[in-house]
Structures are given as structure tokens and as C-alpha cells.
Amino acid sequence: MNYKYDDQLNLSKIGSEKETKSTKKNTKKLYIYLGIGLLAVIIAGTSFILINNPISKFKSAVEGNKYVEASSVYNQKIKGNLEEEKKVEDFIKLELAKIAGSKWTNPYYQYWLEEYKEKPLH
User: What is the 3-state secondary structure (H, E, C) of 43-94?
Assistant: First the structure.
């Protein structure tokens, strides 16, 4: 074995400093990679749960005007579960409030009004 004397006259193995530094670097990299991997698994799992949730399927079907699909999701997976029925009811109320509160505007209405204002509709 090779030994050396450092500045303080302590006897130590040659190369042991390099081994501990490289081991610390490898351990640090391992923790970083494990953390990134764990974060990726958590994100993938959370998105899978949120996307395959019956409430999410129902909402996306309603927002996509797929009412037959929304009806089947409701009847097969939501109906009978009071908590999920309440969430669906709240969602429908919000959607109806959006529709009722919206205002449809026609940019050509003023032209139409000027031309047909005094004329009979028949």
C-alpha cells in the first residue's frame, strides 16, 4: 500500500481522497436522478388519476358537446354516489350560469337594423 505524509504530518492512504470525492459525487447524482424519477412517477400517476376520473370524463364530454357519452358516464359510474352527483350538479349549474350570463353579439346587427327598422317583418 502507498502512504503519504500530508502537510500536518498525518499518515494517510494515497488515493483515498479521490475515492471519497467521487463516491460523494456519485451519491449526489444518484439522489438527483432518484428525485427526478420520483417526480415523474408522481406527475404521471396524478394525471392518470385525474384524466380517468368519472367526473373529469363527464366534464370533458359535456364541454365537447358529447352528451350521449356524458349520459352514459353519468349512468354507469356516477349515479348512486351522492358526493359525485353533487360535483356533477355543481358543474352543470356553473355551465348554465356561463350560458345564461353570456351575450351573443352580431357585428352586422346595426346594418340589419338600419335597413329593416321601419319595414314590416312579413
Answer: HHHHHHHHHCCHHHHHHHHHHCCCHHHHHHHHHHHHCCCHHHHHHHHHHHHH
Taking CA atoms, 104 is separated from 100, 101, 107, 121, in Å, by 10, 10, 10, 22
Q: For each of the chain's 122 residues, which pLDDT tens digit applies?
A: 555 555 555 555 555 555 566 677 788 888 999 999 999 999 988 877 777 788 888 888 888 888 898 899 889 888 888 998 999 999 988 888 887 777 677 788 888 888 888 877 66
Cβ atoms of 56 and 69 closer than 8 Å: no
Collapsing DSSP to helix, strand or coil, 13 comes out as strand
Residue 91 has a CB neighbour count (10 Å cut-off) of 15
* Domain regions of the chain by residue span: 23-52, 54-122
What pTM was estimated for this model as a whole? 0.46
- CA–CA gap between residue 58 and residue 89 (Å, rounded): 11
